[in-house]
Specification:
Elements lengths: L5 H12 L5 E4 L6 H10 L4 E6 L2 H13 L6 E5 L5 H4 L8 E8 L13 H14 E11 L6 H13 L6 E6 L10 E7 L1
Parallel strand pairs: 1-2, 1-4, 2-3, 4-5
Antiparallel strand pairs: 5-7, 6-7
Length: 190
């Protein structure tokens, strides 16, 4: 396949925006794969701030970071991403160049614990306040679960109404796949 699948496309966007020494956000830490990816991108002089409400996600991610010798580049918060502007220290304010959200539920865990449109929108709004120009927010939207369609529709509406003088908004998806395929909304701050 010559076209990037969803996750490689998301990572490619972040690779274009994030450089060594940057500050980035993993808004939904999950199993820590994106956290590790971001920690590698920012290098020894950068930092990742990660958020997840589930203790299990934080524990698994901490272990993954330790195994990769990357834990010194990452601060994890067992907190919702809607609190990110309060939890990221002032040193990180106005320096965030990239952020990723994997929306839905933590694979292999309780499927009733899901991301919510109101907290995700609050986090996006906060990120746009503390992000540098040309910083990118990548939303990987999984919407085939209970509540997923509501979050999908809320985010499409919210992002579709963003002022084009403030941000460029891209939607990337495969339209001929069955079973509510994931898709991406990417927001680049102007």
């Amino acid at each position: 396949m010559k076209m990037d699948k969803i996750l490689p496309f998301a990572k490619g966007l972040l690779q274009k925006a994030v450089n060594p020494g940057d500050i980035v956000v993993d808004a939904t830490v999950g199993n820590g794969y994106d956290t590790v990816f971001l920690a590698e991108l920012v290098g020894e002089s950068g930092h990742v701030f990660g958020f997840d409400i589930q203790e299990e996600a934080i524990a698994v991610s901490k272990e993954r970071l330790i195994q990769q010798n990357l834990s010194d580049r990452v601060t994890l918060f067992q907190s919702g991403h809607e609190h990110l502007s309060k939890l990221i220290p002032d040193v990180g304010q106005d320096k965030v160049t990239g952020a990723i959200f994997n929306l839905g539920y933590l694979p292999g865990s309780d499927k009733t614990i899901v991301t919510k449109p109101e907290t995700t929108i609050a986090a996006i709004h906060q990120l746009l306040e503390i992000m540098t120009s040309e910083g990118i927010i990548v939303l990987v939207i999984y919407h085939g679960h209970k509540g997923g369609a509501e979050e999908r529709d809320s985010l499409l509406s919210y992002c579709g109404q963003m002022d084009q003088k403030t941000a460029h908004v891209l939607q990337y998806q495969f339209i001929n796949q069955q079973n509510s395929p994931a898709f991406i909304i990417a927001i680049e701050k102007i």
